[in-house]
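[Discussion] Sanity-checking designs against the backbone

I'm trying to build intuition for which residues belong where. Below is a structure token string of 147 positions. I'd appreciate it if someone posts a full sequence so I can compare it with mine line by line.
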């Protein structure tokens, strides 16, 4: 399924140059040109939480790290970020919309965003009808039906 997963997700339109990479069971959507996470400024996930992500791809505009839990049928966004010079230009909203479409195309039962610390992102999720669960600190909503 992993190769098919990348093929399925690569067909989701996004108005910004982007790419998708996979390793093990994790994936990254990167916006702009591919760079390593350590080259960007927007990566704000503590290295000790996911050390395997540190040398992975990010984008010159932004990124979304995600995991598709096929046995739970959940699309989970582990972290997302937009480089400071691109903030306020709608890229985060585009990645959220892309993630929702990915969950829809994969037939997921729900979509989750883990440990959102940025209040602007939290407000975007709230406006999109996500529910915030404490103390585990994640945002979730049932995935949208396929069109």
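Best answer:
Here's mine. Compare freely.
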């Amino acid at each position: 399924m992993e190769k098919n997963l990348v093929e399925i997700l690569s067909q989701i339109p996004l108005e910004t140059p982007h790419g998708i990479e996979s390793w093990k069971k994790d994936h990254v959507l990167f916006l702009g040109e591919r760079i390593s996470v350590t080259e960007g400024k927007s990566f704000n996930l503590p290295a000790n939480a996911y050390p395997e992500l540190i040398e992975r791809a990010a984008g010159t505009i932004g990124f979304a790290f995600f995991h598709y839990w096929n046995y739970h049928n959940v699309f989970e966004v582990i972290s997302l970020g937009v480089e400071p010079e691109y903030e306020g230009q709608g890229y985060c909203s585009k990645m959220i919309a892309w993630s929702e479409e990915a969950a829809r195309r994969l037939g997921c039962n729900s979509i989750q965003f883990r440990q959102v610390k940025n209040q602007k992102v939290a407000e975007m999720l709230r406006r999109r009808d996500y529910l915030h669960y404490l103390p585990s600190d994640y945002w979730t909503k049932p995935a949208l039906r396929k069109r």
